[in-house]
Amino acid sequence: MQEALAAAGLPCRVVELPASTRTAKEAAAAIGCRVEEIAKTVVFRRADDDGPVLVVASGGTRVDERRVGALLGAPVRQADPDFVRAATGYAIGGVPPLGHRRPIPTFLDEGLLGFATVWAAAGTPHAVFSLTPAELVTATGARVAPLAVSPA
To answer: Looking at the whole model, is its pTM more than 0.85?
Structure first.
């Protein structure tokens, strides 16, 4: 993951933690930040072409599948673990917002823009990295939109 960050021009450092960061709540506890500052990565599966779609949102929210589908012009559903691994190269609980096997259309919930720094998964359930929301948008090429509802 460190190589993917460097390739994206990000000065971030992957941090390995002894505690699990598999869920947003676990990550926040392990890092010592608020759950809202966790940039969780959720993979969806398009109904029309079966392709993956990535959404990055605050750990304190739930992604509204209808909003994602409306932006895409096709319904989506949350992907199962096998699909997530095949599409991204990572298992659920460690999927980073970049550095996947192939490019994946990516959206970022506008709610993340309100934080100075966010923490994202770095490929395993014990690895994270921090960056600004602006860096995250630039590095992922994400389309920013209102995609989340509170609470998670």
So the answer is: yes
